[in-house]
Amino acid sequence: MKRTAYLVGAPLIVGLLVACSTDTTGRLSLALSSVRPGTPVPSAALSGSAGSPSVVMAGDSTVIALGNDTIIIRSAELVLKEVELKRVEVQECDSVEGNGDCDEFEVGPFLVALPLGTTGTETVVTIDAAPGMYDELGFKIHKPEDDSAEDDAFLAANPTFARISIRVTGTYSQAGTRSNFTYESDLNAEQEVLLSPPLTVSEGQPVNVTLRIDISTWFLNAGGTALVNPATANNGQPNEQVVENRIQASIDAFRDDDHNGHDDDNEDHH
After folding, report:
1. Which residues, listed in sequence order, are joined to residue 78 by a DSSP beta bridge?
2. 173-189 pLDDT, tens per residue?
3. Exposed (0-12), middle (13-18) or buried (19+): which is 233, by Cβ within 10 Å?
4. Which of 12, 125, 135, 178 is most buried, judged by most C-beta within 10 A?
């Protein structure tokens, strides 16, 4: 069963935090993956004459091909903040300290890099978490503001990300003609991804939740029948909204204790 990512807003490189679990807590890790779903759901948007894009993991890059066109993704970075898990019994997370309605992985903002060229995952952060059931992973894709005190420390370490939340670099090839590109977005959005079934944290036991971002769908045209040059999706360019919508729709989260980028409970994969 595929979860739905709900948008509630508008338009890995992070220090690993490790806490030793005790007998009364569980160890909960968050991993990041760009692996495609093992069994893609058929979609009319992807049934054009060229068919669905093929994806090849090559070295430290991801190669996406559709028809005669190819995109080689060499880096993909996102700025995230307020990554947290919500307990089943609460309606929403709040800012009341110590009430236990949510467990926070990281407040941020912080920079993550999608693991490319691999069929596995990369652990971002590990925390101690109270035993219980969690049914939602929430986070924000964040545009750091150079006039915001909240973002000062982040921008001091990452000055090129002022007013940029996503950056992708690579090469676009159309019918054999190649050009390098840098795609940048100032997308500012809050994502809430349902976990189905809920993630269960038990005393003294490790559990992993993977945040999967399927980058293979980002640069499809509106009909899903061809790849677009990522440079044409930069701010003010004709494919800006198409790509931002696809980014928001590409996100999923699930239990993944074997760190292979696939859902332990629901997804049929090889």
Report:
1. 112, 166
2. 998 899 999 999 999 99
3. buried
4. 125
